[in-house]
Amino acid sequence: MTDIVSAAWVADHREDVRIVDVRDAWEYDGLGHLPGAVNVPFDTFRTGEGEAGMLPSEDDWAAILSAAGVTADTDVVAYDDHHGVFAARFLVTAELLGHDPARLHLLDGDFSSWQLERETTSETPEVASTEYTVSPPDSSPLVGPDEVAAAADDPEAVLVDTREDEEYAEGHIPGAVLLDWRDLVDDETRGLLPREEALDVLESVGIVPEKRVVLYCNTARRISHTYVVLRHLGFETVDFYEGSLTEWEAEDRPLATGLDD
User: Fold this and answer.
1) Per 3-state DSSP, what percentage of the chain is helix, strand, and coil (rounded to 5)?
2) b/e 237-260 (16+ beta carbons within 10 angstroms → b)
3) Is pLDDT above 60 for 51?
4) Which fold has domain 3-117?
5) Average pLDDT of the residues of the chain
6) CB within 8 A of 199, min separation 6: which ones?
7) How far apart are CA 60 and CA 220, in angstroms?
8) Using CA atoms, how far apart are residues 32 and 123, in angstroms rounded to an integer?
9) What spatial distance separates the first Cα and last Cα of the chain, rounded to whole Å?
10) Is 161:244 a contact under the CB 8 Å cutoff?
11) Residue 111's closest CA among 21, 9, 2?
């Protein structure tokens, strides 16, 4: 499964992994980046034209990873400067399009936390391109709106809205509990809360490992972070509503309002 790794781990393994910086090119070039990191800006792999929500096409994704020097056997570490939420989306995209989850890693923290204690560079590494081939997985955590609606009424499942309080109050899928994705982030370290604290936060809203968890937000970016965190914490059944509220509302499905569903 995709895991979360420390800055020390990345520093020790950077010769053996492909580090991917998903910030804008001006940040990568102008503010510096982790040594050895290649730049794959978020907007280059984010699309609204694919059949599955915002996922890029298989051809586009193969071209992106090929240019980044990634092969099917490459271990990839991704980071951003927003507590990992954009980087998590890169990694979830890789998983959904068939890259081995065991080879996908999210930096615990982000560029800002890294540069406080470790070196950065403005040098762009020379990377030999590859011929990456997308191999869709046999099984997927992706679910559609009918499965989401059913999960809201299933006592063995918990439907989770990972947006902010105000967004949830304005309109959410009936039966969903609220968990702002940032509630699992430590503001000081800019990374994941300590394990027991994170589990306590999750349990406080009914998210426990024994239940099937179904995640949604607006466009599947924020749930990417929560998905990676839950899998890292050992949750085995985590489903991913790629269409999220964008699709739900487009199909004119019902919404609940207020903070108490």
Assistant:
1) 35, 15, 50
2) ebbbbbbbbbbbeeeeeeeeeeee
3) no
4) Oxidized Rhodanese; domain 1 (3.40.250)
5) 94
6) 233
7) 19
8) 8
9) 33
10) no
11) 21
Both tokens of 107, joined, read: 């930096």
Contact between 145 and 253 (Cβ < 8 Å) = yes
Give yes or no on whether 3-117 and 145-250 have one common fold.
yes
Nearest to 86 by CA among 165, 21, 155, 166: 21
- For the segment 167-218, what is each residue's pLDDT rounded down to a tens digit? 999 999 999 999 999 999 999 999 999 999 999 999 999 999 999 999 999 9
Q: Rounded to an integer, what distance in angstroms lies between the CA atom of residue 174 and that of residue 185? A: 26
What topology does CATH give the domain 145-250?
Oxidized Rhodanese; domain 1 (3.40.250)
In the chain, the amino acid numbered 197 is E
Q: What is the mean pLDDT of residues 151-178?
A: 96
Domain coordinates of the chain in residue numbers?
3-117, 145-250
